[in-house]
Amino acid sequence: MDVSTRGLARPAARGLAAFGRRAGVLVRAHEGTLVVAAGSLLLVLISMLHEPAVPWLTWDSRVYWETSLAPDLYANARVGALGAYLYSPAFAQLLAPAGLLPWPLFLFGWTFVSIRVAAWLCAGPVRRHHALWLPLATLAILDIGAGNVNVLLGGAIVLAFRWSGAWSAVALTKVTPGMALAWYLVRREWRPLLGALAVTALVVGISAVFEASAWVDWGTVLLSNATPHDLSGDLAIPAAVRFPLGLALVAWGGVTDRRWVLPIAAILFLPVIWPNTLALLLASAALWADPNVADRDARRTTEGVRP
């Protein structure tokens, strides 16, 4: 190699080394996100390639997609039954455009949104304690792989500390975790409580204008499942035990200003507890790492768009 060639090779080598260092820093900074994305997408691909379908993989997102096409929303509406649609008509109406998409496209879109929310919830805890990325990523992958809404509801609970209307997403899907609104009663924060109730009522009103009969059907479904004879979830603790414990936890958290207890209480308030429902703990971790995470992220967004 002559002198001129060596002179060109050295800057190129230094550039590659610098690029490698920057790439390494980027990977370490987003390690948890990459693990969540890789694990979730792997499960999604397995579910699409495996015949017959693996029982729990992407099962719930499939239900959401099929609901957008179904003439009868509540044909198999029983708590704990696989493939049952138990959410409000408003959620089904929100997903109505999904029926225009082919199943794979809807699945990857739903998975992408869930990964993005999980990454947001995990960012603060992982910065505070790097070792947390593994348990948090595991919880996220379980729920995203199942295609459920628990990660998204965790994001809604965190967001609700900035805009209480986000509680409507919880009340109009899983329903009973809405009992966590007792937080505002304990703290005598009437304005956010009224805001949450008003937004929920507004969504119900607008939805009922287009499909009033579906709301009557949903009310019937909720009443018929109010006291299920058997809980098929993996943590089959009776609601009579879990609900009072959840309310006590909400009261303690409200009095001591511990926001991170709310997602834990929401888990206790669930009608049925499956392993993937523990993904709500991502919201607890986010609020534990930074109780004001929603406010601070909103300020960063606002500052970022200033001219």
The count of β-strands is 0
Major β-sheet profile: none
Q: Note the total helix count.
A: 14
Average predicted local confidence, pLDDT: 79
Question: Which stretches of 5+ consecutive residues score pLDDT under 50?
Answer: 15-29
Briefly note the structural class of the backbone. mainly alpha
> What is Rg?
22 Å
Helix content: 55-70%
- Write the element-wise H/E pattern from the N-terminal end onward: HHHHHHHHHHHHHH
Outline type: globular
**Strand fraction band?**
under 5%
N/C terminus separation: 52 Å
List the topology elements.
Elements: H1 3-29, H2 31-49, H3 59-67, H4 89-94, H5 103-128, H6 133-146, H7 150-159, H8 167-171, H9 182-187, H10 190-224, H11 239-256, H12 261-269, H13 281-289, H14 293-304
Q: How would you summarize this macromolecular structure in one to three sentences?
A:
With 307 residues, the chain is mainly α. It is built from 14 helices and no strands. The chain has helices at 3-29, 31-49, 59-67, 89-94, 103-128, 133-146, 150-159, 167-171, 182-187, 190-224, 239-256, 261-269, 281-289, 293-304.
Explain the overall architecture.
The chain is mainly α. It is globular, with a radius of gyration of 22 Å. The model is unreliable at 15-29 (pLDDT under 50). It has 14 helices and no strands. The longest helix is centred in the last third of the chain and has 35 residues, at 190-224. Helix 5 packs across helix 7 and helix 7 runs parallel beside helix 13.
